[in-house]
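Design job #97: recover the sequence.
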C-alpha cells in the first residue's frame, strides 16, 4: 500500500508538529523536506558550493541538531531559489513518497511539484506573528538567546523569498485543504489534519 500525504505551508506554521503526529497516527513514514534545504544551506555556510552540496547530499547529513538555527534557515531559503539545487533533491523526495506503508512529506512544494498526485494535501498557515512566537518559544526552550523581533524578521524574509522565487514557489496546490492554525491548540490542529486525511482515505 502506498499513500502520500503532502503538507505545505510557510515558515514555522506547525507543519513539522502536525506531520509527525499524523505520521504516528496512521503509521506512515515522515520526511521533513526542509531539512534537505537546511543541510545544503549549512554546507554553503561552511564554504561548499550549493549545487555540488545538493548533488552530494547524504541522508546522514540530515541528522544534525545545528540545522535548526535561524542562520541555517536563511541559508536554506537562499539555496532553495537555485533550480539545480531543487532538481538534485527531487528523486530522493519522490522515492520517499512512494514508500510502502504510506508517507507524509512536509515542505513548500510537495503538493505542487514533488507529489502533484498526492492522496491528501494540506496547506498549513497561521499569522506571521503567531508563527514567529511559536518559533521564538521553540528556540528559547532549546536555550538559544534570541530576540522575538529577530525571529519575526527571519520568518517574514523567508516567506517573501519562498513565495516570490521562480522555481517551485510557496503556493497552495489547487486541491489542497487549507488549515489555519492561528487560533488552534496543537491537539486541535492535529485532530483536524487527521480528519482531512481520513476523508481522503475514504
Ligand atoms: O521549519 P520552517 O518552516 O521554518 O522551515 P523548513 O521547512 O525547515 O524550510 C527551510 C527553508 O527551506 C524554507 O524557508 C524554504 O526556502 C526551503 N524549503 C523549500 O524550498 N522547499 C521545501 N520543500 C522545503 C523547504
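Job complete. Output follows.
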Amino acid at each position: 500500500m502506498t499513500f502520500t500525504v503532502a503538507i505545505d505551508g510557510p515558515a514555522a506554521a506547525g507543519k513539522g508538529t502536525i506531520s509527525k503526529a499524523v505520521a504516528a497516527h496512521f503509521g506512515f513514514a515522515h520526511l521533513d523536506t526542509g531539512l534537505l534545504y537546511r543541510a545544503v544551506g549549512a554546507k554553503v555556510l561552511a564554504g561548499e558550493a550549493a549545487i555540488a552540496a545538493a548533488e552530494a547530499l547524504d541522508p546522514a547529513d540530515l541528522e544534525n541538531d545545528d540545522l535548526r538555527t535561524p542562520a541555517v534557515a536563511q541559508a536554506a531559503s537562499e539555496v532553495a531559489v537555485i533550480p539545480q539545487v531543487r532538481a538534485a533533491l527531487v528523486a530522493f523526495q519522490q522515492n520517499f513518497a512512494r514508500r510502502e506503508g504510506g508517507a507524509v512529506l512536509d515542505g513548500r512544494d510537495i503538493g505542487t511539484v514533488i507529489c502533484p498526485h498526492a492522496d491528501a494535501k494540506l496547506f498549513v498557515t497561521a499569522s506571521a506573528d503567531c508563527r514567529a512566537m511559536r518559533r521564538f518559544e521553540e528556540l528559547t526552550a532549546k536555550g538559544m538567546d534570541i530576540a522575538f523581533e529577530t525571529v519575526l524578521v527571519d520568518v517574514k524574509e523567508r516567506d517573501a523569498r519562498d513565495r516570490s522565487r521562480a522555481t517551485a514557489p510557496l503556493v497552495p496546490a489547487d486541491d489542497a485543504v487549507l488549515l489555519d492554525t492561528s487560533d488552534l491548540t496543537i491537539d486541535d490542529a492535529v485532530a483536524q489534519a487527521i480528519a482531512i486525511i481520513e476523508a481522503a482515505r475514504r
